[in-house]
Write a structure and sequence with these properties.
By secondary structure, the protein is α/β, with parallel strands linked by helices. It has five helices and 39 strands. The protein has three domains: 87 residues, 3-Layer(aba) Sandwich (Udp-n-acetylmuramoylalanyl-d-glutamate--2,6- Diaminopimelate Ligase, Chain: A, domain 1); 204 residues, Hexapeptide repeat proteins (UDP N-Acetylglucosamine Acyltransferase, domain 1, 3 Solenoid), CATH 2.160.10.10; 26 residues. The longest helix has 23 residues.
Amino acid sequence: MEFTLSRLAELTQTEPKGDKQTMLRNVATLKDAMAGDISFVSNPKYKRQLETTKASVVILSAQLAENYDGNALIAKDPYLTFAKVVRLFNPPKKLAASIHPSAVIDKLAVLGKSVNIAANVVIEKGVNIKDGVQIGAGSYIGENSNIDQDTLLYANVTLYSDSQVGKNTIIHSGVVIGADGFGFVLQEDKSWYKILQVGNVVIGDDVEIGANTTIDRAALGSTNIANGVKIDNQVIIGHNVKIDENTIMPGGSLVAGSTNIGKRCQIGGGVAIAGHLEIADDVMITGRSMVTNSLKTAGVYSSGITTEENAKWRRNAARFRSLDKMAKQLNQLEKKLQDKENTDGE
């Protein structure tokens, strides 16, 4: 793919600066860029690299572009514009309509137009696959599941029965959707009695789910992932969880059953959220936090201890064990001091 600077400006709704006929063929970092490449700066700490970059065009904010003599694409949000440019140079590949001979498709399944079904895919009865869906090799689609238009499943994705997946969704390899939720009741003999999980999973439009993530089916009703949600690799979503629109969740996060997460939330990597909680819209939770209470107001929340030099961390850990005792002693000292002040003032 090739674009002139002026054409990229038109496609990304940005402002060109310099030679508008500069031809661009690739996207690269400031450090690695050569003639014909376009790069970007979104973090001011990298602006020094503008002095040495060989990129033909750099995507910049208006402020940085003022002092840059080279060709530029001036954008309100350089990082977002960079993402759009990368997509322009690397448009998604749409596979031709095809069903591999090794695919096993039940006669009661319904396939739309222009679907691509790769090798060793299994599609059970009652499945409804809409137009333009692509299903990678070795994937399994359970009974009565639905996959809407132009959704992409990479290799080895598993959809248990009754799973519902919306339009333009991307599901990466190793994802398991609709496995049983973790539901057990302790019996008198101290053994565990399994609670049947008879609900399903409903996934909206424009969702992306990273590799080896699991989303459990509901005990009753549905586990819901709303439109525009982005979930990274190796995330665990428990039964009856509801994640509202445009929330994002990086790798290694855990959400226990029956928790509701609002719209536009940003959940940091490795965050653990306990069950039966309410997380408000527009909440940000920083990485490695442990959430044990509902967060009912928008804002930034954190927990945990940041990294320290080991010897210092060990001392602090030892002192933490005495924190309750120290607090009681402090309260006693404050009371004595207050009593003394009251006596002196009489």
